[in-house]
Design a protein that fits this description.
With about 425 residues, the chain is of the alpha/beta class. It contains 15 helices and 13 strands. It folds into two domains: about 210 residues, Rossmann fold (3-Layer(aba) Sandwich); about 160 residues, P-loop containing nucleotide triphosphate hydrolases (Rossmann fold, 3-Layer(aba) Sandwich). About 35% of the residues lie in helices and about 15% in strands. The protein has a seven-stranded parallel β-sheet, with helices on both faces.
């Protein structure tokens, strides 16, 4: 199957071809005809499978066909709601790229930057608005955005929306929308909670489920068992030995990300941290430096990393395993995208054994365990308690972390040794509370 056979217009095909895409991915093959036919859709596909184009391409075509020369007004015709700033920026870039030869205007709004330039753009009139919930509600409260004539509503990364506690904001946004509209709900995972959310938004939807909680077959996975106190040294060793130039590293907390970034710098490995406490300017600069090769390592938390689209990223490292098994799939989905190969390594200490077993149950496979020479387990490693990630004491109330501190380690069944070293070279248990995006 080709994009031509999906019934897309010549203008959209031209922009797709300019990006070098010839064959649609499975989620695109299934979702594009459904959206073009005017149906609501509930689509589940793992990250990195091209689901953004799965709703962007048909939505652009329908909008152009319905009102090709529509006079610009304050009223938004299509609303795309995303959980994070980075994902909003990525979706906005995709809309601009694929809509290059169409007479449609779009803009992206999110928190962490000035609101007045965003208000100015909205007043000039736009067709497609990509937004995070918090900033969208701020703009609506100020009378800067009119959603009464929305024809298309897209809820992207719906599972992360729920994880971050956006359900109440989503309900507020839905009250601003007209009853008659086409709804497109896309999610990296497909839980019962997602289906309950969909039942209140979608009307007679077509369900598309390409992959359920599976790791991409393009990604080679491996676990390196290691004591908690040796993780930093092992990470530096792997980066140096493999001469890696671009590595995305995941930690569980913001303070852990900051500390690891500082420690890697002491080892002569330049990196930057990206998380919710960083300003949007700092996050954008860190991502740009990482993409350009100015820095070798980007240390991220789960919430900040959702939506990161880094072309041909070769390595993802789980410095700490996530509390929620599904987040493992999201993490390693940052590599092995668009048909490229990728490598995902997890540095797992004995206290994380339960988390590892939960991940393996979810993805339906055992991840190979490989001890790295010089970092083999010792008896002390089973009693090596990870340090809690706490902010510096400043007399102020304790700030919320991205997730809870690690549990106490248990001495029970950790991964068995599996031979020589690898050759190549946050929904916590108590639930999330969120800040405005």
């Amino acid at each position: 199957m080709t994009f031509e056979t999906l019934g897309l217009s010549a203008e959209i095909l031209r922009s797709v071809n300019e990006q070098g895409y010839e064959t649609p991915t499975p989620v695109q093959q299934q979702s594009i005809p459904v959206v073009l036919a005017g149906h609501d859709i509930l689509a589940g596909a793992q990250t990195g499978t091209g689901k953004t184009a799965g709703f962007t391409l048909p939505m652009l075509q329908l909008m152009q066909q319905k009102h090709p020369e529509r006079k610009r007004s304050h009223a938004v015709r299509a609303l795309v709601l995303t959980p994070t700033r980075e994902l909003a920026a990525q979706v906005g870039e995709s809309i601009s790229t694929y809509g290059k030869y169409l007479s449609l205007k779009s803009t992206v709004v999110f928190g962490g930057v000035g609101i007045h330039p965003q208000i100015d753009k909205l007043r000039r009139g736009i067709d497609i608005l990509v937004a995070t919930p918090g900033r969208l509600l701020d703009l609506h409260q100020q009378g800067a955005v009119d959603l009464s004539k929305v024809e298309f509503f897209v809820l992207d990364e719906a599972d992360r929306m729920l994880d971050m506690g956006f359900i109440h904001d989503i309900r507020k946004v839905l009250k601003m929308l007209p009853a008659q509209r086409q709804n497109l709900l896309f999610s990296a995972t497909f839980s019962e909670e997602i289906k309950r959310l969909a039942s209140g938004i979608l009307k007679s939807p077509v369900m598309v489920e390409v992959a359920k909680n599976e790791a991409s077959h393009q990604v080679t996975q491996v676990v390196h068992p290691v004591g908690a106190s040796k993780k930093r040294a092992l990470l530096s060793h792997l980066i140096r030995q493999g001469e890696w130039q671009q590595v995305l590293v995941f930690t569980k907390t913001k303070h852990g990300a900051n500390r690891l970034c500082k420690q890697l710098g002491e080892d002569g490995i330049q990196g930057a941290a990206i998380h919710g406490n960083k300003s949007q300017t700092a996050r954008t600069a860190a991502l740009a430096d990482f993409k350009s090769g100015k820095i070798r390592v980007l240390v991220a938390t789960d919430i900040a990393a959702r939506g990161l689209d880094i072309d041909q990223l070769p390595h993802v490292i789980n410095y700490e395993l996530p509390h929620v098994a599904e987040d493992y799939v999201h993490r390693i989905g940052r590599t092995g995208r668009a048909g490229n190969r990728g490598e995902a390594m997890s540095l797992v200490s004995p206290d994380e054994d339960k988390l590892l077993r939960g991940i393996e149950r979810l993805i339906g496979q055992d991840i190979p365990k490989v001890e790295v020479p010089g970092f083999e387990f010792t008896a002390e490693d089973f009693f090596d308690k990870p340090k809690e990630d706490r902010p510096p004491r400043s007399g102020r109330p304790h700030q919320r972390h991205d997730s809870k501190s690690p549990r106490k380690p248990s001495a029970g069944g950790h991964a068995k040794r599996a031979g020589a070293a690898h050759a190549s070279g946050g929904k916590p248990a108590g639930g999330h509370r969120r800040g405005r995006s």
